Amino acid sequence: MPLTVEEYRIGQLYMISKHSHEQSERGEGVEVVQNEPYQDPEHGSGQFTEKRIYLNNKLPSWARAVVPKIFYLTEKAWNYYPFLIVPLSLPCPLSPQCSFLPKFSIHIESKYEDNKGSNDNIFGAELRDEETEVWFVDIAYDEIPERHYKESEDLRCFKSKKTDRGVLQEGWINSQDPIMCSYKLVTVKFEVWGLQSRVEQFVHKVIRDVLLLGHRQAFAWVDEWIDMTMEEVREYERATQEATNLKIGTFPPSISISETPLPSCARGGPNSAPSTPLSTEAPEFLAVPKERPRKKSAPETLTLPDPGRRDSIFKLPGFFSWNSSPQPE
After folding, report:
1. CA gap 276, 169 in Å, rounded
2. Among candidates 77, 272, 83, which has minimal Cα distance to 183?
3. Do residues 64 and 56 lie in contact, with contact meaning Cβ atoms separated by under 8 Å?
4. Distance (Å, rounded) from C-alpha 317 to C-alpha 17?
5. Cα 266 to chain centroid, rounded
6. What beta strand segments (E) does the chain contain?
7. Taking Cα atoms as reference points, which of 208, 256, 190 lies closest to residue 50?
8. Cα angle: 197, vertex 143, 57; to 5 degrees
9. Which DSSP string corresponds to 281-292?
10. What is the DSSP string of 187-245?
């Protein structure tokens, strides 16, 4: 990206909030459950967030056939910028009681450096060549899904008024200054016979598309966030998260962005790469259904709250390759 790592500290927070809002709708999208400071003995001060990603309607038909109607992933992120850990998990124990879903997990690590993607060993000994596939993503010239294309976000035409960066022409990566790269190391596990290859290919494409779109937007929106302070972007993040939760309509907005760092034990994350402990209680949709007479009328519908004018105020990505692959952008 035509940014510095220090600039992207603000741009990342702005982009994720606005992107999540734009990609959310009633019953679908990203609900923020927690957002608060976190202290780690190894990585130091950071920010912990927990999100629920509702995506049933975004799944292909073959996937919707094997998951519940109310389906979401739990994302717990530890942001020790410029190092970020994001595990995603299913919202229930991986046990016989969860037989509708196989063992499935995604673990993402991100690191940012001021270079052109030239650091082949940024994740060190964690990589094993026989299991690694490397993708290079060009935010200006790689194709994105047509439904996500916006002329205002086409970096082949966009020029920043505040930074005087852009238009990004062919070969921009070799001539752009400043320039930074977002490296991703992704591990995906899906263990079910007959569906593993198809699911892996699907998730791989979805993750790449989200990353491409999100990082395009980070630069396309640079004039909106480049002058923000950390305090201002955190306030924008809080307001936008509340608007997004209201827009989804699944739960009332209740976002807590604490000013007091929590001890590392409070979130249960280990010193280096936190695992994602799964809840010991099955969600409501797994409970044994109660006996009740069958209705002869149309199926029940749920009327979700209208976010009102909030949408017009916050016009507010994305994720990787399989089996531990770093993906520079």
Report:
1. 41
2. 83
3. yes
4. 9
5. 23
6. 29-40, 44-54, 72-80, 83-89, 103-113, 181-191, 325-326
7. 256
8. 55
9. S--GGGSPPPP-
10. EEEEE-TTTHHHHHHHHHHHHHHHHHHHHHHHHHTHHHHTT--HHHHHHHHHHHHHHHH
The predicted pLDDT at position 127 comes to: 56
* Cβ–Cβ under 8 Å, residues 248 and 31: yes
Handedness of CA 213, 216, 220, 225 (dihedral sign): positive
Q: What is the pLDDT of residue 203?
A: 78
Tell me the mean pLDDT per 10 residues along the chain, length 329. Answer: 98 96 86 92 92 75 63 87 86 43 78 95 68 87 93 97 97 96 87 77 82 96 98 96 86 45 46 39 41 45 45 37 42
Distance CA(87)–CA(196), nearest Å, equals 19
Is the CB of residue 220 less than 8 Å from the CB of residue 153?
yes
Token pair 């459950």 in the structure block, residue: 33
Residue 190: per-residue pLDDT:
81
Can you give the residue ranges of every domain in the chain? 5-246
CA–CA distance, 94 with 278 (Å, rounded to integer): 8
Partners of 111 in the β-ladder: 83, 183
| Whole-number Å distance between alpha carbons of 228 and 87 | 29
C-alpha span between 253 and 129 (Å, rounded) = 44
**Could you tell me which CATH class the domain 5-246 is placed in?**
alpha beta
CA neighbor of 144 nearest in space, from 126, 133, 156: 156
pLDDT for the residue numbered 17:
95
Q: What is the pLDDT of residue 193?
A: 79
Task: Give the integer Cα–Cα distance in Å for 24 and 50.
Answer: 16
- Cβ-proximal residues to 244 (8 Å cutoff; 6+ apart), any chain: 17, 20, 21, 24, 29, 30, 31, 32, 314, 316
Q: What is the DSSP letter of 166?
A: B
DSSP letter, residue 277: P
H-state helical runs in 44-184: 61-64, 172-175
